[in-house]
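Q: What changes when cobalamin is included in the input?
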Amino acid sequence: MSDFFEEIKRNIIAGKVDQEDEGFDGDLAGKPGVIELVNQAVDENVSPTDILNKALTPGMEEVGRKYEEGEYTIADMLASAECVSEATNILKPLLLKEDVQSKGKFIMATVEGDLHDIGKNIVSTILQGSGYEVEDLGTSVKADKIVNKLKETNANFVGLSALLTTTMERMGEIIELMEKEGVRDQATVCIGGAPTSEDFAKKIGADVYAKDAFDALGKLEKTAG
Ligand code: B12
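A: The predicted holo structure follows.
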């Protein structure tokens, strides 16, 4: 079973979406890519959360390291990102349980100026699978759009994602706008993304910082009661 995790991870790092795709690793030519491997793993009853945690996330982390070290370009990162998106699309229906009682409405967004959405999409899927009604506003979402959506839907939670040290500053501005518009107390604000932290959450007045989706589930559960 662990072979699946290693193989999927290797194909993500190689940016090889499917069998036809060449990817950057010659040894993988003609072999199954991420889509085939994930489907095969699912058919063999490998847990979707294990695929997320043991293959997709570590695969993307390795891609990040290669980019930092100058080995990978942005185009390479995009190829790997596409692999993870395709894999997440396959896993999504399996992570969504039916007939779960709603835990509340959750607005999710990557903040303005930031286009990173892999982590946000994973968090949205896991939250949805655990009973939250998630409305994902996408990437590079302006503060006023988030606050207007909050007013319109009476949502109970706002989830904000940022992967850049520059864009994380938008999170505090969103909270300020919520205060100005009189809706700050309506929703629990949960932030995440690699450059954010517990300290940063305190500094900007967010309610919850979570390092990943499972951390968020635990912490939100405590907030609720
Ligand atoms: C893939 C990627 C891209 C892709 C994004 C594709 C996409 N659709 O998302 C592309 C190629 C577009 C890209 C572009 C850029 N990127 Co980029 N990118 C990455 C990379 C390699 C991986 C990010 C990722 O998907 N990780 C995997 C997921 C699963 O992890 P995650 O996002 O961290 O999410 C998890 C947690 O953080 C958390 N989480 C995330 N959001 C939320 C929200 C909530 C509410 C909660 C509770 C939790 C949570 O849970 C998630 C699941 O576990 C990182 C490197 C890295 N190590 O992170 C660089 C990285 C983030 N990028 C970086 C940079 C600099 C850029 C560019 C500026 C490059 C450029 N010169 O153009 C542009 C910016 C574009 C923009 N305006 O946003 C830097 C940021 C540096 C910094 N500190 O600011 C990094 C760290 C790389 C580096 N070391 O230099 N990038």
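Observations recorded in class: The mean pLDDT is 92.
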